[in-house]
Amino acid sequence: MADKLQDTRRMCVHTQTTKPWSLAEAIEGYTRASVPGITVWRDHIAPYGAEEAGKMLRDSGLEVVSLCRGGFFPATSGQARLDARNDNRAIIDEAVAIGAPLVVLVCGASPEIELPVARQMILDGLADIEPHAKDAGVKLAIEPLHPMYADTRSAINTMDQANNMIMALGSNQVGIAVDVYHVWWDSFLKAEIGRAKGSIFAFHVCDWRTPTRNLLTDREIMGKGCIRIREIREWVEQAGFNGFIEVEIFSDDYWKQDQDKYLWRLKSAFLNHV
Amino acid sequence: MADKLQDTRRMCVHTQTTKPWSLAEAIEGYTRASVPGITVWRDHIAPYGAEEAGKMLRDSGLEVVSLCRGGFFPATSGQARLDARNDNRAIIDEAVAIGAPLVVLVCGASPEIELPVARQMILDGLADIEPHAKDAGVKLAIEPLHPMYADTRSAINTMDQANNMIMALGSNQVGIAVDVYHVWWDSFLKAEIGRAKGSIFAFHVCDWRTPTRNLLTDREIMGKGCIRIREIREWVEQAGFNGFIEVEIFSDDYWKQDQDKYLWRLKSAFLNHV
Question: Cα–Cα distance between B51 and B67 in angstroms, integer?
Answer without folding.
Answer: 14
